[in-house]
Amino acid sequence: MVVTIIVFIIVFSVVVIAHELGHFLIAKLNGIRVLEFAVGMGPVVAKFTKGETRYVLRLLPIGGACMFEGEDGMYSSDKDGGSKEEAHEGAFNEANVWSRIATVFAGPFFNIVLAYLLALIVVGFSGTTLPVVGSLTEGYPAEAAGLRAGDLITRLDGERIYLQGEVTFVSALSAGEPIDIEYERGGERFKTTLTPKFSEEDNRYYIGFSIGEYMECKGVNLLKYSAFEVRYWLKTTVKSLVMLVQGRLTANDLSGPVGIAVTIDDTIEMAKPYGLPTVVITMINFAVLLSVNLGVMNLLPLPALDGGRLLFMLIEVVRGKPVAPEKEGMVHFIGFVCLMVLMVFVFYNDLRKIF
Asked: What residues are paired with 67 via a beta bridge?
């Protein structure tokens, strides 16, 4: 368990630091003063000040913050009796709207950049798995549709496919709807439509084939398939959110820090028999997933998230003037409270699933 906690702290901290570093660097490039760069939440463990920025490490490694001068109408000079209406050089709200948009968007964007850099390590070490049909299951739709071992799946329902995981994801979440499949065989392209068959024993639908052919990745292929790997996690994250809204996934499918820690522990245990390098690569791959998830979740147009702030700025672009900082700050505060309530619920739900 100690190893799991250490790995959890390292993985989560790397992902959070990348996110906040995006905000920090782009803010600096646009002349916006960063008052605090914090990793973690809760009580302060360590801190130091360099230049105009205070760097803080907090006790709970489950978040972070980059605080800007003048953000939400709050100025550092207010504590010394200054007026918040006074223009401050380097204040967030005094910056050009596009500079502020770039600063806020940079956090999620850096998460995607981090995911790609980590994917380079994973794919370079482990290679990739192409969506090539393996064995066919007798009596299932794939066989009846004319698919054969060695066929390369290229599209599912019109969507381009590059990795085995993309086919597996569609198959695992199938509710029995017909699937349009395009595939290549001997340099020729074919199309077919099949309807997954329900298995009473497993209580799920199956297409009826095994999928996957290993390919080592070097050079251009390494760059390309690392991008495909990140694309895959982006797609699955977005589709999972859509399914949550549609009710196909429930609140029980959500996981917070505790659930993530349990997943890390289970993953380490499964990878242990294959040696330390496999454990490390598996954890790096988990960090890819986590970084993409953090990037996508932060872009949701909800108060207190980066997406919520971006929404206010886009409204400013359309209106030609900003929403009053005090009003925007209140909306984000309410959103933050709701977010904390959600975190408590997810925390309780994680504990309930464990015990």
From this structure: 36
Distance CA 67, CA 173 (A): 40
Q: Which residues are catalytic?
A: 20
Distance CA 230, CA 210 (A): 23
DSSP labels, 215-249: E---HHHHHHHHHHHHHHHHHHHHHHHHHHHHTSS
Structure confidence at residue 344 as a pLDDT band (50, 70, 90): confident
71-108 tens-digit pLDDT: 766 666 655 555 544 447 788 888 999 999 999 999 99
Q: What is the bridge-based pairing of β-strands 128-136 and 204-206? A: unpaired
Write down the residue that tokens 């801190």 correspond to. 47
The pLDDT tens digits for 103-116 are 999 999 999 999 99
CATH numbers and ranges of domains, the chain: 2-123+289-354 (no CATH), 128-215 (2.30.42.10)
Looking only at the bridges linking them, the beta strands covering 209-215 and 128-136 are antiparallel
Residue 127 φ/ψ region, left for φ over 0, alpha for ψ in the -120 to 50 degree band, beta for the rest: left
User: What is the C-alpha to C-alpha distance for residues 299 and 253, in angstroms, rounded to an integer?
Assistant: 20
Residue 336 CB neighbour total at 10 angstroms: 14
d(CA 95, CA 23): 14
List, as one string, the DSSP characters of 94-153.
GS-HHHHHHHHHHHHHHHHHHHHHHHHHHHHHH-EEEEEEEEEPTTSHHHHTT--TT-EE
List strand residue ranges (DSSP E) for the chain, in order: 34-50, 53-68, 128-136, 152-156, 159-160, 179-185, 188-194, 197-199, 204-206, 209-215
CA 166 – CA 161 distance, rounded (Å):
7
Give CA–CA dist 92/309, Å, rounded: 12
Q: Is 291 exposed, middle or buried (0-12, 13-18, 19+ CB in 10 A)?
A: buried
